Amino acid sequence: MHYSIGIDFGKDKLDICWLRDVRANKKKTKVFPNQRKEFEAIANWIRKNTKVEPQEVLITAEPTGVYHEACIYFLHEQGFNIYLANPGKAKQFTQAIGLVHKTDKSDAYALARYGTGKEDLELWQPEAPEVRELKALMRRLDALEKDHQREVNRLEASETADVSERVLQSLYDMVAVIESEIRKLKTDIDDHIVRHPHLKKNRQLLESIKGVGEVVSRELTYLFAAKSFKQAKQVACYAGLIPKLQESGKQRGRTSLSKEGPSRIRAKLYMAAVVATQHNPAIRSQYHRLLSAGKTKMQALGAAMRKLLQICFGVVKNQKEYMPQAA
What's the predicted TM-score (pTM) here? Predict the structure, then answer.
């Protein structure tokens, strides 16, 4: 039996709850700053209170952007069992056990309870060092691309307004600097992928699919290395490409994409799907079939995005180049 710990991570602090006795609802809590210098103290607090080896302790937490990562990696290295709960399911559990007030302390308690009620947990495992490095590079690229779009929007607005030449020059310079750094970062990412055979192989497999170019292959090489998907449907769900029924008033049977998960993946897949509807026989056939059935162009493109992503998952999972099927 594991000793159950729940940790609610925030930007500046983290709340820990040790569930001492589930039946008697006894617990012990503690708040620590979310800083690297405190991680050893956190591990010591858990050891001191539970009085067991780390291998007998289950720590349940929710992914919270990047704020949980450093501490989770440290605790895993110390030997603790880590379970990262699905935020949606953890929220449903919190509501089911009747927690009325939502605080960081109550969230930590709910996570500790959630961990005790799970059977056959799929414990979290850290990525390989090369995948962690790729994750950091991809995050930086994503941030720069967002900054670039914001500066381009400001530049376009300023060019139509009566602004000083100095402001325009500043915007031109900023866009040029960001574009230069984006090019360098893309080169670094590509070089990093080439240096690691399994990443290089996956990217080559992805680019064997008509419609998948360097942008999408770069994104999906990282995605499939960082996430462990067992089925193609899981990938589509993660990317927010599962159809969602919307009915209201006289509008019946209308569907749209769920659009949950990373929007950057959908944005890149959208352009790839547009190309694939012209050059990939399987996707082109599906696209025109859906249009003939009365679907809108956006619905047909959404289906093309989903099919393209599922094909990508298939070639990586099977480690075989894409073989187009007869339409």
Answer: 0.81
